[in-house]
Write a structure and sequence with these properties.
The chain is an all-alpha fold. Helix content is 75%, strand content 0%.
Amino acid sequence: MQRWASSLSLPALRKSSDWLIGILLSAAGYSEKIANAGGRQSLSTQHGIALIFIMMPVILCVLLFIFGYKFPMTQKEFDIVKKEIKRKRGEDSSVTTEEEKSVCERVSGLPYEKLWDHKNEWIAKK
């Protein structure tokens, strides 16, 4: 099941990243016609592309730190979340403790009762 899901998500991720790169290159002034003809892009386009290659990793790192700060997770908490997922799949028959519920709520940012709501109906009620 996991391989099937990842095999569907990877092409979508690749297409969306191609789309984003295309938009950024267009914004920088990149011309495919010039590139295909063997010509050089303008200096402002070259600077724009360099800026993209510098700023995108910086922006992604900042987002990584924001998500890491907002949703911190230790190895113990990660193991608790994995155990809870096994419970929901029916692979573990133990009862969820209050500490485990609390960890799942803190890590996900959602109330435990809404955590496994597959229809996400609670979002529309906000």
